[in-house]
Amino acid sequence: MQTLKKYVSEYKIRIIVIGLPYDLYGKKNKQLEKTKEYMKYLSEQFPHISIEGCDERFTSFAADEISLEMGDYSKRDDIAAALILETYLEQKK
Fold it and tell me: Diameter of the chain by CA atoms?
């Protein structure tokens, strides 16, 4: 949490985007509920920041495909995070 607080302060963060892990059919599950609890916690820790959720259903699969093409699987999570953010920004257009 200290690292996140540092980034929020240093970079004047206004929005945090969290991937929402719905199941393949868009249904709720235990992990989604835990994620929403964490989002609530973040809202309490950072009341001046908007905590936004974005469906992440197919980002891991897409990140796997991109990592395979790149020949570097170590960047999979970074790629998935970028895809979640890209999806969020596309929905805001």
Answer: 41
Question: Got the DSSP string for 17-75?
Answer: EEEE---TTS---HHHHHHHHHHHHHHHH-TTSEEEEEE-TTHHHHHHHHHHHHT-GGG
Both tokens of 61, joined, read: 């699969």
**Model-level pTM?**
0.86
pLDDT by residue for the chain (93 residues), tens only, comes to: 899 999 999 999 999 999 999 998 889 999 999 999 999 999 999 999 999 999 999 898 999 999 999 999 899 999 999 999 999 999 988
d(CA 3, CA 52): 19
Q: How far is CA 51 from CA 13, 36, 76, 83, in A?
A: 11, 10, 23, 17
